Amino acid sequence: MTQTKYEPVIGLEVHVQLGTKSKLFCACPTDFGSEPNANTCPVCLGMPGSLPVLNAEALELGMRAGLALDCEINARLKFDRKNYFYPDLPKAYQISQYDMPIDKNGHLIVEVKDKEGKWIEKRIGITRAHLEEDAGKLLHEGIVDGTLVDYNRGGIPLLEIVSEPDIRSAEEAYAYLTALKAVLQYAGVSDCDMEMGKLRCDANVSVRPVGQEKFGTRTETKNLNSFRAVQKAIDYEIARQIQVIEDGGVVEQQTRLWNEAKGETALMRSKEDAHDYRYFPEPDLVPFTIAREKVEAVRKTLPELPRARAKRFVEKLGLPRADAHVLVEDQVLAAFFETTIAEGASAKLAANWLLNDLLGTLNEQKIKIEDSPISPKALAGLIQLIDNSTINGKIAKDVLPLMLSENKSADQIVKEKGLAQVQDTGLIEQIADKVIAANPKSVEDFKAGKKQALGFLVGQVMKESQGKANPKMINEILTKKLS
Amino acid sequence: MSDLHLLTLKEAIEQAKKGGAADLVTALKNRAQKLNPSVNAFIGLENTSPIGAAASGALAGVPIAVKDNICVEGQETTCASKILKGHVPPYDAHVIQKLKNAGASIYGRCNMDEFAFGSSCETSTYGPSKNPWNLDCVPGGSSGGSAAAVAADMAYAALGSDTGGSIRQPAALCGLVGLKPTYGRVSRNGLIAFGSSFDQIGPITKTVEDSAILLNVLAGHDAMDSTSANVPVPDYTKNLNTSIKGLKIGLPKEFFPKDSAGGMDKDVEKSVREAVEVLKGLGAEIKEISLPHVQYSVEVYYIVAVAEASSNLGRFDGVRYGARAAAKDLNEVYFASRSAGFGQEAKRRILLGTFVLSAGYYEAYYLKGQKVRTLIRNDFDHAFKEVDVILSPTSPCAAFKIGEKSSDPLAMYLSDIYTIPANLAGIPALSVPCGFTGAGLPIGLQLMGRAFEEETILRMAHQYEQKTQFYKKKPAL
Questions:
Q1: Which residue from A263, A424, B158, B471 could staple onto B146, CB 3.0 to 4.6 Å apart?
Q2: Using CB atoms, which residue from A49, A90, A92 is nearest to B93?
């Protein structure tokens, strides 16, 4: 395998739309899906004579993101102009931050599985994150002659988060994006909705022979519309670059476009065609200083972040690491879980039932967890019935879909359908006697030391009780009778 | 009254108060009808906005002329460029709102150098404006139309904009008072940008008092301009007559070499030296000072200002407003629209600005330029510890002939040698008439002050003006 001779080196550039009410430099709303050009004004249309005024909320969200990613916050804030011509950029320059990004030198710890499938922590450096304005959108579809431009998106605040080239596989890239998204959602920076284009990612990929320190020549791949696309495109690029080298060629510095339908990347522009953006300080915005106290005040308002939450779930609540990991990635799911245990469910059962059963049931009906008709309190009610042995797990699995279809509490369903566990010792003994009499072979086997024969007998008793007998009691009674 | 056009702004305000507002506009329009075909100060007079919006305002009923780079809602604003022909701004510049709130009517669009690139008003797509003192001469620029309109008594006062001298130099060449306020004193919101870190809007008027009256209306903080300063606005007319006794005036030795006239014409030197004596007579103290880095001003300006301009003018690409050339594809839209839409000087500055910002040249030009700008600023800070006002000629020469310098950009750029330093330093500067050449052309004296101390230079200029009375002489038209 040639793959093992090479090591991929990957860095990601992520653009997230900040969840502000208004645009970065004007008061226009940031609503998604408005009529084309409804959310525009002279400033975001770049009308001659208009001037930008910085949105304080965007600045704060930029800081929050930086603090959540363990960045240093630059004390001095400066904006620059990035000059290029394109119809979606009405001023012919984008107001961005060139050499003094608001956030720098941060990192994100992600959990990935190593080659043996063991969970390990990996530190991915965050080089920088800077504020800039989004561009408009070109509309081609359904237009016979020419192209139309919708400037609604133009001027919406973006944070471009640039990672160090610390990522070594497509899986790690996926884990990084998932963790980054969770952190940004927790910090209230962005809802990171990829379908609405609120999180976009470009991937820088190079390969080098294992053991070589110097990086190979990298390509930048754009048009990655999902985390899966990022993963697939990186794998494609790694394989393509290795093939180029193996064929005796040289990887060229290029910008490439991912084609989802074909599952491949294609040349967009080569190094020679790269823009000279002629960055220079934006004279319409005066540099200013961010007070340390302001940074500390923002830091205090940050909530518990995913990694700390996962750690708490493992250490304080005794959850398996994999469960904690899945739970904290989705803020809504984690909150659902925490409310479920606050409503009296035990942690391990709550995690199990939430991740394995409730999510599965909801998925079948295409319901999102935030819209779940079964509330955390209702789920806690079901789990409590298991905890206090009113029903066993097997019955509970039948109760859950009924809660959804009949919109009733677990308690109500168990009562109405008579599903409560049989706890009556006399009744269970009666059934056990019947089963022992009917299965002499199994009894003999057990007595001869075949432990698994007991399992069969327990199953038979359970079957006779229509699944309602308390499994722990069956076990005890059978063991006593057979000894 | 048949000579209502001769009024100063102050007198026009009085006239309007007496109920003669409509007569004012009529008088100016009649005057313009007669003279504008030869002076070409106005691009259009059709744009007079209705008067009487604020009957009690400081400028109630008084028409004010406006340079063609300041946006007026619903009225064509083109920067005298072909590329913006037909552009109608959807909003008022902050200063236009202020004028309207003060009851003024917006009257007449004034000609200018295209995008304010020039010192002669010759680069306008509407043809050059002429100097009312000699119609073969330029009125100066870039606010040449504003100055020519006021000098020819076709306007009581006009707004100009000043990036490197564009208010003061035409005021000097037309025998008027031109004030470039401190950077940040007047909002730039709605001023179509040339050099964003230099541009300031200011008044061109017949007298210093008129300048103070108009500045009272224009000055003030605007939340929509991040470079606008939140500094209290005094009544600039209040202390005009307070004695200037004891105020210290600095004469930079770099501008006034001991053994020669320096870069200025003999007539200019003579008038300025006489002005120094008059000011001395009014009680001011004269001191020689040094601005060691000021000799690099023109070079620094033509790097930093054109860099900003090249970026500011990117938006004129034929996509959204103004003229779009017929084209097959996107690149051709850009190339054809910009090639056809911009004049020679605009193209020269866009190329220069693009060059100094390019990879590999940025450090050598733009960054170095900004560093020298800081040194020049420091020179002024240092000098203003010793003196209250710095004095120089406004322009090294009086009005020159149309066409005389238009093929020699460097000679043209040197017209601004005395005015550019104030834009680099962001300080206020004013030009006031200080005499005439042998050929009868006006000469201007420049007074520069500390940031936000417009009051001091207005006060000194007012008393000098009242003593010398040069403003009373009118061109023979």
A1: B158
A2: A49
